[in-house]
Design a protein that fits this description.
Number of domains: 3
Strand content: under 5%
CATH topology of the largest domain: Fumarase C, Chain A, domain 2
Number of helices: 18
Structural class: mainly alpha
Strand order of the largest sheet: 1-2
Shape: elongated
Distance between the termini: 45 Å
CATH superfamily of the largest domain: Fumarase/aspartase (Central domain)
CATH architecture of the largest domain: Up-down Bundle
């Protein structure tokens, strides 16, 4: 039978997908059970000498098929693994799973998966931030038309435009670094979390157990680690997904016909359309945007999983089995795409300048208004006069607008010819934008541990 889910063949890197394979899941399971036995021996709960090398050799012989065959009999996933391991290990297997309940193992597996996946996410996000920082620095003084509501506003720079996304991605990096601490925790609490099965040694055994696995300990839990932790973390990842879409969507806009201020890479033999040979579509940016829709749709259900009954019920399980791999693998795809996009982004500075010139002199009315008001003119009077000139006159050239301002008895009192030439230039806009960019470049430096 072939693949069903696009994750299997289209989305995500091999390193991220590997974490969530059934084979990897079983290896996490084996590692946790082995670590538990080590902790039990170290605390003298198991007084018999255990040959761990031989035990590990026995564990290595158990495959996911062995587990699946056993589950058909016992109809319990955790006990299927425990039985398969015990069967292979013979006399050595009698202590396997001592003091633990299923969710001690399953929640701890999830923590190990998230720990490995989170490392990948943060590494790739750092690479994106560093690449974007280089772009922002390089183009901080390069003029670009600023737009609001899809219409020409005032001049800005490429660096300023891209700095918006640098700021957002940096915040996501900080948030993920912090919220990941909530989920990189395991547990060894027994049936409902009281640790009565190993009382009064459970606390110490758990401490050794989690330290060996490199995981933290939650302050409290029942049979499951409370899912508000997972909700915080996963929704933080979904916010990052939306931030990536914000950047991808901007690139889509900049690539539109008639704008064309930036373009995705386009291979020499790449095809843009099956019917229109001229097409160069922003397909990578569009894929980033499409994935975000999928991930955002999961956010409310993640919060619903916070609500469990008594010390445990199973409603969260099937949802998490499918959702956690989906979120991490699809986000991984977005991260790889965005890094590739910005690393190879083609900046069209000539077209950007053409777009600015097309909107002159209207885009300079902002500074003209401020100058008149600061010089003592009534801002509201000046605004109305300029509004009428700019909206009721036919298309004006820069010199025509300058002449209209200088010939107006009111406006000309607050601006002279030398000043108006500076106002009607890119220089003040570029300088102001560039200084703001310098500040965000300083703010978004990541200190590596």
């Amino acid at each position: 039978m072939g693949h069903i889910h696009p994750i299997d063949y289209r989305y995500g890197s091999q390193e991220m997908r590997r974490i969530f394979t059934r084979d990897s899941w079983l290896e996490y399971f084996k590692r946790i059970e082995m670590t538990l036995l080590e902790a039990l021996v170290e605390t003298n709960i198991i007084k018999e000498k255990i040959d761990f090398e031989r035990l590990e050799e026995c564990f290595s012989k158990v495959s996911i098929k062995d587990v699946e065959d056993m589950e058909k009999i016992v109809r319990h996933e955790t006990m299927a693994v425990v039985r398969a391991l015990s069967k292979e290990c013979g006399e050595l297997g009698k202590y396997i799973h001592l003091g633990a309940t299923s969710n001690d193992i399953l929640d701890t597996i999830m923590a190990l998966q998230l720990k490995e996946a989170n490392t990948i996410v943060l590494r790739k996000l750092r690479n994106i931030i560093e690449t974007l920082r280089e772009l922002v620095e390089k183009y901080k003084d390069t003029p670009l038309l600023g737009r609001t509501h899809g219409r020409a506003a005032i001049p800005t720079t490429y660096g300023f435009r891209l700095a918006t996304y640098l700021d957002e991605l940096y915040r996501s990096y900080i948030r993920i670094s912090e919220t990941s601490k909530l989920v990189l925790v395991g547990k060894l609490g027994g049936a409902i979390g009281t640790q009565v099965e190993l009382y009064p040694y459970g606390e110490n055994i758990e401490k050794i157990f989690l330290e060996k696995l490199g995981l933290g300990k939650p302050e409290f839990y029942t049979q499951v680690i409370p899912r508000d932790r997972l909700a915080y973390y996963l929704n933080t990842l979904i916010i990052l997904s939306s931030v990536l879409e914000h950047l991808a969507n901007e690139i889509r806009i900049m690539q539109r016909s008639g704008i064309e201020e930036a373009m995705e890479e386009f291979g020499e033999q790449q095809v843009g359309s099956s019917v229109m040979p001229h097409k160069r579509n922003p397909i990578m940016s569009e894929r980033v945007c499409g994935i975000s829709r999928k991930l955002r749709a999961l956010a409310s259900s993640i919060c619903e999983n916070i609500v469990l009954e008594d010390e445990r019920d199973l409603r969260n399980s099937s949802f998490e089995r499918s959702t956690i791999p989906e979120i991490l693998i699809l986000l991984d795809e977005q991260l790889d795409l965005i890094h590739r996009i910005i690393k190879n982004l083609r900046i069209n500075t000539d077209q950007a300048l053409t777009n600015i010139r097309r909107e002159e002199p209207y885009i300079y009315s902002d500074l003209l208004l401020q100058h008149i008001a600061i010089r003592g003119g009534d801002r509201q009077v000046a605004h109305e006069k300029l509004r009428r000139i700019l909206t009721q006159s036919p298309k004006l050239s820069t010199n025509q607008l300058k002449d209209m301002v200088m010939n107006d008895p009111y406006l000309s009192k607050y601006v002279d010819r030398d000043e108006i030439d500076t106002i009607f230039s890119l220089e003040p806009y570029i300088k102001a934008a560039s200084e703001r960019v310098d500040k965000i470049l300083q703010h978004t430096k990541i200190t590596y541990p």
